Amino acid sequence: MEARHLRYALAVAEHQHFGRAAAALGIAQPPLSRQIADLEREVGERLFDRTPGGVFPTAAGAAFLAPARRALCEMSAAAVEAGRAARGETGRLRVGFIGSALLRFLPSVLAPFRRDHPDVRLELREMSTARSAAALTRGELDLAVGRGAPRGAGAEELVTVTVGRDHLVTVVGTGHPYAGLKTVSLAQLGRQHLIVTPADDEPAVRAGLRALLEDNTLALDTATEARDVHTIIGLAACGVGAGLGPSCMRAAGRPDTWFCDVTPRTPLPDLVLSHRRDDRSPVLAAFLEETRRSATTRARPGRARGAAVSRSDAAR
């Protein structure tokens, strides 16, 4: 039994005449009559009474037509849902991200993605770069946004694209001696109590800071650790010390804090988006396309330049 048999039976029931039903279906009458006869043989019951006054459903036919109509509706809905899934309009996307990604990159992508794909289930998890990279390689995430290219087992199977660049800044409370300064030197920072991200969370950032401070690494060994940029800013505002973090941290500034650039200007590991090379999920493709559009918008004159992302870019 095929969908066309159901459509033919419903047309005959509606028009109560083989000729009119055939015309409505756009086929000849003899083939329609044969198809209905074939359907009745398959069902094992006579579905229509053929009378001089017209063709009318039997009791068996009436019982058959109601679920046949529902079945056609379900088949049509299934085709629609299949198309939506193929276009990335439904499904699930699991994203791991570091907190600082919420200051610039993720707001530019998540809002339009949610607007254009309201039926995609987003699972968002704040995680360190190391943890999200490991979860991505294990198949527990579809995307990871972190600081620096993922490392470790399975990293070679990932596609990684830069989505943001930052340099090192320090944040202090307004009562701190550095408040009001445009820049502070690494030597000055080496004499301060520092607030930094844990080495286990962001090893690339911590290793870079240790190399920069050289003989003043004791400041790192005695530093207060905070996993989130908002916590770093909050502790600095409380007078705990000088917080170190990415320049995008300025977006979360408070009236009781002050930001200074660090000299010499010190680039941090890029903010990167990573996904598995063999992932062909339409939802992932839709998110990457939204990321590309967002980057194009940010790159227009008068705006900060961003990185475009697409599957073709990522494969280069």
CATH architecture of the largest domain, by name, is: 3-Layer(aba) Sandwich
Number of domains: 3
Tell me the series of helices and strands, N- to C-terminal: HHHEEHEHEHEEEEHEHHEHEEEHH
Please count the helical segments.
12
Distance between the termini: 49 Å
CATH class value of the largest domain: Alpha Beta
Indicate the proportion of strand residues: 15-25%
Helix content: 40-55%
Write the CATH fold name of the largest domain: D-Maltodextrin-Binding Protein, domain 2
Q: Which superfamily, in CATH terms, is the homologous superfamily of the largest domain? A: Periplasmic binding protein-like II
Q: Roughly what is the average pLDDT, rounded to an integer?
A: 86
Strands side by side in the biggest sheet = 8-12-7-11-9-10
State the total count of DSSP E strands.
13
- Tertiary shape: rod-shaped
The biggest beta sheet reads:
6 strands, mixed
Sequence stretches where pLDDT stays below 50 over 5 or more residues: 301-316
Protein name: LysR family transcriptional regulator
Pfam families: HTH_1, LysR_substrate
InterPro entries: LysR_HTH_N, LysR_subst-bd, WH-like_DNA-bd_sf, WH_DNA-bd_sf
Keywords: DNA-binding, Transcription, Transcription regulation
